[in-house]
Design a protein that fits this description.
alpha+beta; Arc Repressor Mutant, subunit A; Dna Ligase, domain 1; three-stranded mixed β-sheet; two-stranded antiparallel ribbon; globular
């Protein structure tokens, strides 16, 4: 099976940081690529188990955390404590924001600068620095609004 550009980029990012591309890391990266969208850690775990049964559950969770720290994987906190993941280079919007529909659960990628004015106003008014890429906005998608 040919390697996707997103997998190649993820593995390249690891090597650029002098990080090893272990079997566990490769399995998680490939699972994220196959799943697409914004899967949860549990969904990634299931996909890894289907493809690389020798990778332990704890390895998947630890690897997701490590890959996020290294900037290879992006994570975003959704509603009700759920965290979703995707490969950092998978979407056309490299760094971007997320919105999650409270009705259907769909996730929409948003431009990274969408909340720049709001973030600046909050910082000027309160001294608080927002991290809007870390948490998904909640609302209703176009399909559910009809």
């Amino acid at each position: 099976m040919p390697e996707s550009a997103a997998v190649a980029l993820a593995e390249s990012l690891l090597r650029e940081q002098s990080q090893r591309v272990t079997a566990g890391r490769r399995a998680v990266i490939r699972a994220l690529d196959r799943l697409g969208g914004h899967p949860t850690a549990a969904q990634v775990e299931t996909a890894v188990a289907d493809d690389a049964s020798g990778v332990h559950r704890a390895t998947v969770y630890r690897t997701l955390e490590t890959l996020a720290t290294l900037g290879v994987v992006t994570h975003v906190h959704m509603s009700h404590g759920t965290t979703a993941y995707h490969l950092a280079g998978r979407t056309a919007l490299r760094a971007h924001l997320h919105a999650r529909c409270r009705l259907c659960g769909g996730v929409v990628d948003l431009p990274p600068d969408l909340l720049d004015d709001v973030s600046e106003r909050v910082r000027e008014t309160t001294g608080f620095t927002l991290d809007p890429a870390h948490v998904a906005l909640s609302g209703t998608c176009a399909g559910c609004s009809v």
